[in-house]
Amino acid sequence: MVVLEKSLSVKENCVHIKLPFEVREEGERLTVSFCYAPKTVDDKAYSERLLKECFEKYVSADRSDVEEYGEADIFDGENQVREAESCGNKLTGKTDIFEGKKQFERAEKADIFDGENQVREAEGRGNRLTGKAFGGEYSLSVGAFIKKYTPLKNLLTFSLDSPSGVYVGDAHRHDANQVVFVSEKESSPGFLPHKIEKGEWTLTLSVFFVEEKGVKADIRAEVF
Amino acid sequence: MKKYFPVELHCHTNHSDGSMSPGFLVESAKKRGYAAIAVTDHNTASAFESAAAAGEKYGVCVIKGIEWTTFFGHIVCLHDDANVADWRELNMDNIDAHAEKARGKNAVLTLAHPMRVGAPAANGCRMEFRIKRFDLFSAVEVWSQNDPPDSRANVLSEKMYDGILSGGFRLAAVYGFDWHSPGADLPYFINTYIGAENLNAEDLKEGIRRGDTYIAMGLQVELLADGEKLPFGAEIGEGEHTFELKISKGLCQGEVLPLEIVLKGTAIECGEKAREAESEDGLKRAVVKCGEKMQRAESEDGLKRTVVECGEKAREAESEDGGNSQVKSVRFGAEEKMRVQTRKGFLRFEVHGIADGKRLPLVFTSPVWVVY
Fold first, then answer.
1. CATH at residue B155
2. From CA B102, how far away is CA B188, in angstroms rounded?
3. Chain A touched by B46 (CB under 8 Å)
4. How many beta-carbon pairs below 8 A join chains A and B?
């Protein structure tokens, strides 16, 4: 028996939308199919604008006092010059220069230091201790940051509450097409086994990110 | 007998967006040498049962938890009852009320990767909750994910953490790998170490609440104060203390020498410069307070000269950010006994090593607390 069938246009970010549905008779298994589209944000200019704002808000704003934390960028030892993979934008363009401790903000792929002409190993080359790459958004220039997070993806998740008020579980994944089931004996990963009780269940749709033009979500629930 | 156990407190499985099944996660944890892990999926604790079963099989202690993954920040909650709070009801301003409820039921709350970028690059990942009651939280992920120890995100988290400690809030420093997928096999990993009598979930959670934790990459440490072992998070009286940090390089395969220990905190009595006391018995003597020990500097050859002798050289306690903050730092060589004048506040330790051409923090401990 179909207990929920909803097609909704979701445009508002950071909200929880409650979708109650009635199970008229106790059942064996509840199956929920949860889809939304588009997943990927097509509009490149829009993506770039949002990511630039994101970078300004969360990354570059926090670099204003980097001079005091210069130790992290100071190259120890003698004049060791390591070739960075690609050294673009050393002194012009995206690189910021801090006078006090003569440190240069990281260029796209390399850290460059004044005076001793030391070039530290590029972020892309890997971590210093093991040769394997470490991540870190703060090491990126705005261009690399935008490139890393493009394309942007819309993200919706959902959770279930039973009529008796039990929080059955949540599907916090990036898949835009999911099918989950709940039954007394076992349930899909993310959900506890639970009796398919008669009464009002709630599916809560959580909107982590939707683009300006919105997404269409198709949610269907059936009880067998 | 208390031991420090290497644990990973922030892991995901395929019950949320991890790529490992609970069993595979536990097996991977065993391979990496963790004594315990906390399974902390986004907004669900449904993986615990199968993870715990795998824990029995592989010999890994599994702690039940959940990561409240909200629009305003992520909080890792370790608790047997995953529903101590409804994550969907959390917002920037009611966080304290919910944390109070959870804390009242003995949950251990950790601020996860507080300085990660936010939306839309990583939705909800930046800590934007307007928390006032930091006393309701037990820990902060000072280092996080794959960022190198000295990366900006971690440095900012450390700064936030020092701010919290300066306010008198006793939170433990932990590392959060945010383990989603198997990942590369590195020679060694960043571990959180928790001091506990026994290897079980309750004792480990209690260790976090007591603040007996430290973060380390490849090294292990033990703290002694005035010759006696001292757990992190413990209280000591004001005055002069001699600290020793015993460092073992058991897990470290790289070359990290020479090591240096940095003490940081509001509890360090700032020995700025030589102070001139009143002249005693006609001679010009200056009593020098070096932050470590009092020394009498005698005037040389009748001239009004102050010779400062502290054994090596006078150590100046530097203020962290040019004088405004109360958080000071002092450096010592790894083998040194650190004599420090303390006053009310917090005191934490870092071990820095030279690796691959630069100095890198390898150990970050929770503080000890200096009280009257």
1. 3.20.20.140
2. 35
3. yes
4. 147
Alpha-carbon dihedral sign for residues B170, B63, B122, B148: positive
Residue B142 lies inside a defined structural domain of this protein:
yes
Q: Report the DSSP beta bridge partners of residue B360.
A: B353
Please report whether residue B291 resides in a domain: no
Last residue of a domain, one of A123, A142, A161: A142
Buried b (16+ CB within 10 A) or exposed e, A129-163: bbeeebbbbbbbbbbbbbeebbebbbbbbbbbbbb
Nearest-angstrom CA–CA distance, A29 and A49: 45
B chain contacts of residue A121, beta-carbon cutoff 8 Å: 356-357
**Does the residue B239 lie in any domain?**
no
- pLDDT of chain A, 224 residues: tens digit per residue: 999 999 999 999 999 999 999 999 999 999 999 999 999 999 999 999 999 999 888 887 665 444 333 222 322 222 222 222 223 223 322 223 322 223 333 333 333 332 222 333 333 223 333 222 334 677 677 888 888 899 999 999 999 999 999 999 999 999 999 999 999 999 999 999 999 999 999 999 999 999 999 999 999 999 99
**Would you state the structure tokens that stand for residue B143, as one six-digit string?**
């280092």
Domain of residue B61 covers 3-217
- Window 167-186 of A, Cβ < 8 Å to B: 167, 169-170, 172-174
pLDDT digits (tens, 9 = 90+) for B163-222: 999 989 999 999 999 999 987 666 667 899 999 999 999 999 999 999 999 999 888 999
Block residue for tokens 């959770």: A159
Spatial distance between the Cα atoms of B343 and B327, rounded to a whole number of angstroms:
12
- Taking the mean position of all CA atoms in its chain, how far away is CA B243? 17
List pLDDT tens digits, range B74-124: 999 999 998 899 999 999 999 999 999 999 999 999 999 999 888 899 899
Residues 83-112 of A with CB under 8 A from B: none
- The answer to whether residue A147 is domain-embedded is no
**Structure-token pair, residue B284:** 């010009």
Percentage of residues in chain B having pLDDT higher than 90 = 57
ipTM of model over 0.90: no
Interface probe, candidates A12, A81, A129, chain B, greatest B C-beta count within 10 A: A129
Tell me A131's DSSP state.
S
- Let me know if residue B116 belongs to a domain: yes
Selected residues 5-34 of chain B with any CB under 8 Å from a CB in chain A: 13-17
State the residue range of the domain holding A96. 44-142
A14 and A85 part of one domain: no
Q: Are residues A60 and A133 in the same domain?
A: yes
Mark yes or no for CB contact B117/A58 under 8 Å: yes
